[in-house]
Amino acid sequence: MKDFYYKYNPQKGPRGHSVRFYISKRWIETAKNLPDNVPSLLEKIAREVCELYYPDWIKNNPERTICGWNEDYPTFLHHLEIPGNASGIAFEEGINGPAYLPHNMDYAEQASIVFAIMGRYDDFVRSSLKRNKSKSL
């Protein structure tokens, strides 16, 4: 199994832009042990990406947090709350394994936001995986 992959099958209508991110146990364990500055970096990135698509949402919600982190593992992303009607993704242990599953993803812009944020988070995790691999050699 790949460590991180996604499924996206856009359709017209409500929830038509649902995107799912499937992750491996190894990816999860690495994400739980990322450097302490990753949450603040990802939040900054998330706000900048949301502002590109929904500038009024950011302006009207300056204290709003986009990235929600696991209480026990503060560098493991639990969910994203993006502009929309309770829109975003959340980590779940589904029947197909661990994944970030969508909630109320109605527009292509919402999917673009999630792709951008999750792509960057995956970059952090993959960098750490590579560092850990080179240390063990």
Notes on the protein architecture:
The chain has 137 residues and is an alpha+beta fold. It has one domain. Helix content is 42%, strand content 25%. It contains 4 helices and 6 strands, in the order E-E-H-H-H-E-E-E-E-H. A 6-stranded antiparallel beta sheet has the order 1-2-6-5-4-3. Helix 2 runs antiparallel to helix 4. The radius of gyration is 15 Å and the shape is globular.
Separation of the first and last Cα atoms:
22 Å
Main beta sheet: strand number and arrangement?
6 strands, antiparallel
The average pLDDT score comes to 91
Radius of gyration: 15 Å
Q: Tell me the series of helices and strands, N- to C-terminal.
A: EEHHHEEEEH
Entry keywords:
single chain, 137 residues, alpha+beta, six-stranded antiparallel sheet, 4 helices, 42% helix, 25% strand, globular
